[in-house]
Amino acid sequence: MPIPKHDELRVPVLQLLEKKGTLNLKEFVTPLAERFRLTEEEVAEMYPSGNGQIFYDRVSWALSYLNMAGLLEKPRRGVYQINEKGKELLKTPDKVDEYIQKQLDSREPVKQKKQTTKDKLVLDDSRSTFTPQEKLYASFSNIRKSVYAEILATILSKTPFEFERLVVMLLQKMGYGGEIKNSGLVTQSTNDGGIDGIIKEDVLGFGRIHIQAKRYKLDSSISRPEIQKFVGALAVAQSNKGVFITTSSFSPGAIEYANSLNGSTTVVLIDGKALAEYIYDFGLGMQVEQTIEIKRLDADFWDGFKDEP
Fold it and tell me: Is residue 296 part of a domain?
């Protein structure tokens, strides 16, 4: 079952508090997971960044919105309790979301010279079914995709030889060739035998990775025969390691063929999207534009302070 959105958790959270009294955040997870019939894998599923569990985060934001709308109380840090307004509204659960939205809309700061701290902390786009953290990840993903497109467009504006030089540099940036001097080589454009570049894995050159680079349009595809030709070129070069890199994609037949090669020869396929990702992640020709630091409360630190009785 899909992991419920934070707005889908609001009513179940209120109902659970009405039944249990007071609960801390962690105590919501198991009963809510059981209610929505989530598997252990779904409960433990992490954000793509690896920074936090999705379900736990959505429960946290459901509680935040309920609290901001004045339907919950926090008798002490990290502990939640439904109040009389919450109990009253729970009699008509279909009106909970509407009520929360009205409360949040009323809190939106008006244009004035002076704003309270409460005004300044109003969340934007409270109607969204995504939590602020999820919207941040989605924005980050979209930014990356736009940069990927820019990387590939830039590559296509360069000559084929420069593309070959780029992919050799990329493999070196990824750690292939290590500290070996002149470990990367771009072959001559004529009589290259189907090999566009070579990475030496050791000083004496016994271990080598052979590269073929195809700078094709993004909507084109590399077919199986081209991979077979590359495997033939590897045999001539007496090599069992090859990387086929393209700005386009690979056909299902090409992928199936590369995966079916026996252990004596290994061919790794890198399509346009993967190529852009590697260039981005390893910082080849990239510069950091902005670093965003997100912080959360240190529970160990704050638990060291006495709660108000």
Answer: no
